[in-house]
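ingest -> validate -> predict -> emit
validate: passed (alphabet ok, no gaps, 233 aa)
predict: started
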Amino acid sequence: MHKSYQSILPCQSRILKERWDRKYYDEHRDKVREAKSVVDTKPPTTYVHLHLKLKKLQLEEERLATVERDNRILLEKMSQIMRTKGRVDNHNDYISRSLNKEKRRRELIRVTQENQEILKRILAREPEYNHLEWDKEWEENENFMDNVSRYPRDWWELEKQEQEMRKQELKERRKKDSKKSKSKKRTKSREEKSPEAREEQEEMEEKDEDKSEEKDEDKSEEETEAEEAATTG
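emit:
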């Protein structure tokens, strides 16, 4: 095994060099193992009174003792009631007598009289500001603002109303145009066909009219939305 050992420093005998190195390494490990740490890494000391709270246990025992005593007294009373069918004396003939009753009554009367006088003064007082004059002044100011302002009041609501009127006018125009065109087509087709075919055609045309009206309404809504987007943009 000594031939496989490769020393760091040059040496004449690998066997001796290996033994010496192993001895030095063992001594080094012993020194490291027996070295005393500079920092105290021991766990902190534990105190019994922090973990075992005797005072708390004593208070808990006293509370349980009082609860047990009260329960025992209540049980004795209940058993006595069950044996003797219970007798309760709830009569109280005591008449309450107060030394300052008359004084408190006079004080209450005085306070109520003062409150009534204050209320009368408040109700009899006329206001210093006339709200009717304020309303007139506000109306005049609004008229002045309307004359000076560039746009009328609630102009966004007026725009909405105008857009709705335009939508309704467009719908009415399209309905009229579609009815005129369809009436012309019907007259031409009726003149060419027999009476039986005319009746069938009339039924088909009524169905087509309902469908076309729905489509026209959808188109008019889309166009109006596009116009609104263009105006807002």
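Residues 10 and 17 are 9 Å apart (CA to CA).
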